[in-house]
DNA sequence: CCATCTTTGTGCACGCGTTCACAAAGACAT
DNA sequence: ATGTCTTTGTGAACGCGTGCACAAAGATGG
């Protein structure tokens, strides 16, 4: 039933791998910086360093777009900026609605990176009548009742959900029903959407927990002689009374 | 030189795959919800549906932690909550500092999901002297000058960077020098960190661009007879004057 | 105690993504 | 025109992640 699918499974639209698509914005950012410094060309090695990836990976990524480099020279910065922008669809206008204007929603509305690349905040929507009409980031907040009308009038296809978890699925359903086919979800919930709708999630809590996992590993490495690596800069956190398997919780399985 | 590495390459600490670690918080969230409804046990099928993943994947994920299920019955909810929490390191206290108290930093400070699972906002730090002392989310903002002291006094090992892009690398360097070994980066920049330091990034702009890519694909599918899927609900966006390869940019490569 | 039924745990195969390593291609100097 | 030097583009191998499909394990009922 495709509930909560985040990365798309294997639809790979025209041959550009999903992993490559996810890196294109990174390259674009690095290239834009070079462009502003009027750098004419760049080698895969330099650009890869700027984007924080392997140079072979970068070359293979670009090879999916076509042969835009010149051997012995590198890539033309301006040309590549245009090609990647076009491939990502950033040469057109993407109206975006943000639903849920709390702390996070307001921060997103104020975020400059939005407007920079083809994205335009078409509307801010919140369920709180007290907010209706109040400007946030220069845009008046509209009430949830008008959600469908806003989506349709402005032909919005991308929605950002920044509501509490409890409201997210309902908002999502309404967005999709009104015609939104891409959703960026900040609410800590798994969203169910029909086929043909893309969902990407940004989950602060999950990221922190992943960091905590690795952090814990760095601290407690008593048992099992180290498998190499783990060189320096490890604060030796003294109170490591967290037995690797010792104590049992109050509750036991039947 | 390991610059800007996000997912760790292949260090796989004790056999738990990175992909599994990334899903554990998802399972934990679903299990916590079940726990609050006093559900005693859950099958892999049910839990997988709640977490939005394949049931076989979930079972394999759990198998890396050990054999915590009972065949014919399922998994004990409370026990699994504890085991996953322990594995993720959430049974201990993780002091976190947030650097950069702008719109986003303030939103993060107010985010409840922080405190819920072992994470504690130890300090808010900003370079603006005008902010120093002012409470945000009930915590007084401290000045960047005291960053090192705060990190060391509170034994902080996780830092959240919510500064503008220009300041991020510098803040990162100071955090790392002071002893932070895990960083969650919200600034749109590639961070360079020494080995042994984990960086995860949350980049709104990148997520939107990935969505735009797929959105563009949904709209313009003139050439190349569809490879199946893509059934309905596609707004037929009329003005598709974006030739798949036709027009050339103003700037051409040499 | 045995049969049946449910659900876990996992062997296996497949596909995607990454990386190495190198041949091909072009720039540039002589 | 020829040779050298740089850098791209990619074939091939490898490893990780995913999902199928099934045997093993235990619960449950007679």
UniProtKB/TrEMBL annotation, chains A, B:
It comes from the Bacteria. It is found in: Cytoplasm. Residues 217-254 are annotated as: Disordered. The keyword Transport does not apply. Residues 89-190 form the CoA-binding domain. One of its GO terms (biological process) is negative regulation of DNA-templated transcription. NAD(+) binds at residues 100-105. InterPro entries: CoA-bd, NAD(P)-bd_dom_sf, Rex_actinobacterial-type, Rex_DNA-bd_C_dom, Tscrpt_rep_Rex, WH-like_DNA-bd_sf, WH_DNA-bd_sf. Homodimer. HAMAP family: Rex. This is Redox-sensing transcriptional repressor Rex. It comes from Streptomyces malaysiense. The lineage of its organism: Bacteria, Bacillati, Actinomycetota, Actinomycetes, Kitasatosporales. The gene is rex.
